[in-house]
Each structure stands twice: as structure tokens, then as C-alpha cells.
Amino acid sequence: MKTILYPVNELRVGGAEQQLLELVRGLDKSRFHPIVAPLYRGGPLDAEFAAVPGVEVTHLDRRGKYDPSTLWRMALLLRRRRVDVVQPFLSPATFFGLLPALAVGTPTKIVTERCGVRRARGLGYRVYRTVEDRLSHFADAVVSNSEAGREMLLARGVPAERIRVIYNGVNEARLRPNAERSAAHRARLGVPADGHVVGILASLTPAKGHDTFLRAAAAVARGRRDARFAVIGDGPLRAELEALAVGLGLGDRIVFFGNQRAVADLLSVTDVLVSSSRDNEGCSNSILEAMALGVAVVATDVGGNRELVRDRLTGYLAPVGDHAAVAAAVESALATPSERAAIAARARQMIHSRFSLARMVQDYEELYLQAGETRLASATAAREASRA
Q: Out of 42, 94, 361, 362, which residue is the most buried by the measure of CB atoms under 10 Å away?
């Protein structure tokens, strides 16, 4: 049995964390023993991870961003548990996972690239990413969840032969709306009988471009008295975005729902989901989940979005930061229900055929086995060459 260690910053509500949760749930526990190692304790998803049979959660209890002792604790964990594969998720967990793994000689090291390098980069982030890029050259494999991510890795100097694209998978069992809760959400939004709901599902952070969504919503609202708007997710910009919504005159036509674990209950009452990201996107969970539920998607043309959204075929694309174009796409979707339904149906079929959770888990299991075999073969070849 292979022991897989997953360092992660914190088990918060986010796309990368949700994909990690689905991965460790789906792994064949007769062949793989997953250990999830958050740098920080007390994440909202701690209990969900701990409740998964066969999954071990070991907190590293980092005491702050200047606490270097996490490196020592990670090294001890890697050595004591005889970890076969280390696969960190996100910065700075990649740094705190790879450096000790190199020091103690963990057999297989895999880097997980979720959404590319952020364009808005603080000093701490720049330092970690610079070091992580160097460490990635010692990894056995680097996984991106989109072709756009693969191109970014190539631009950062990662050898093509080490890059593996594994798209996110959709857990359709998680996307079963509860009719009673959905009705309550619709009532809270105050949707007229023949009205429409336009939503966004993303963390309230600068990268997700909620200001673009809100300005587009205001433009749609001026022409459609029957439209209501749902903001699903939470984050540091909530107060600022709520104030902007008031300033734009959205008033009681918009609801900030905060984090929702049962996202299907809200998505099922949504006619159009907007992904207004202005930073690099990989394989967006919110787009995948909306498509799986037959909800039409309007997305900004950034990163991996165009791999999911083909304009007027599986969704609607708009330029990054262009709220007028986003509003026009939303209005077009609402004004042509038959076209919207056809686009949503094609997208839903694409999700069923290409983005299953079983496919994602299988791809990772194959990677864990192949990476180990490749490393062993390389070591054997090197020994034979030295004897020649």
C-alpha cells in the first residue's frame, strides 16, 4: 500500500480544497493510504475530511507565517510515516511539503498547480512562488488541471515530460438539490413567478472579479425588473462588495448567501451562472457544477475557462473586466430561452462524458503508480550506467 501525504494550507471552503476532498474520498483505500496535513488547524472542512473512512488528518499547527518549525514537523511526518508520495496543494504548502521531502528523500514528489500564477502578487507570495518554481524542477511530476495551466508551467521552465493534465472531476452525488431548501432560497431572493436568477459562485477575493459581476448585474437589472441576483461564497471583500451593490442600486434584488456547502440547492434556482474572474483560472469548479446541473454559464475569457466554455456552444464568453459584455451575454441568455437550454444541454453532456469524478481519481491513481515506476526505472538505469 502506498502512503500519500497531502500538505495543504488550511481546510477552508474553496475549489482546490473541495477537489482534494473528492480525491481522498475516491481513492482505493486497499492500495492507497491518504494523509491530509493542513498547515493550520480549525478550517471549516476539518470535520468533513476527518469523517472520510480511511483518511487520516494530521495538523501541523503552524503558529504564524514566520514559523519555520513547520519544515521540521513536516520532515518528521514524512519520515515516521514512511510516505511514498507527497503531493502539496497550493502555496505555501508546496514549499513546506517539497523542501522537507527533498531533505528526507521521499520517493515520489508531485506538485499540484491549480490555477496558475496570480497576476496580483504580494511580496510573500512572490517569494514562495519563486522558491517553489525552483523546487518543482526536482519533482517527479507536476499536475495542472487545465491546458492553460500546462502552458504556464512550460513558461515557468517545467520540462514538458513532467507535466500531466488532470482535469477536475464533478461529484454528481453532491449535486442533488433539496426542493424545500431551493424553494426557501428562491423566496429569500424574492423572485417573481416568471422571474430569473443570475448568480456567481466564488470566494469573495480580488481574483474572482465580483465588481465586474455586480456592475453587470446593475446593467441587467435596469432592463429587467424580474431579475434577481445571488452571490454565493464568502471572503475578505464581503463588506466592500455589499457596499458596492447598494451603491449600484441593486438594493433588495441581490442576496449575499455566504458559503454554502449544499451548492446545488442554490444553483438549481439559477438561470445563469457568471464566472467573472480577472486572474488566472484553471478548471473552475463553479463552472463544472453549474454545467452539471444544466445551468447556462457566462464566463470571462481567462485561463482554462475557454476549455470549458465554447462561446455559444457550451456557454457564453466575455472579455475580462468588461462588465458591459458580461451584462450583454447574460441578457442574451435570458432573452433566448431555447438557445440557452440548448447550450446548457451541450455543456451538461460534456460534463458527463469528460469530467467525471471517477475519471479524475483514476488518473491520479495511475499517476501515483507510474511516477514510482518511472523513478525506479531511472534509478536502475543510472546504476547500470555507472557500472558500465
A: 94
Class of domain 2-169+356-387: alpha beta
- Confidence band, pLDDT 50/70/90 cuts, at residue 324: very high
- What residue ranges do the domains of the chain occupy? 2-169+356-387, 172-354
pTM (two decimals): 0.90
- HSE (side-chain half, CA atoms, 13 Å) at 357: 19
pLDDT of amino acid 156: 83
Q: What digits encode the pLDDT tens for the residues 255-296?
A: 999 999 999 999 999 999 999 999 888 999 999 999 999 999
How would residue 117 be classed by pLDDT, with cut points 50, 70 and 90? Answer: very low
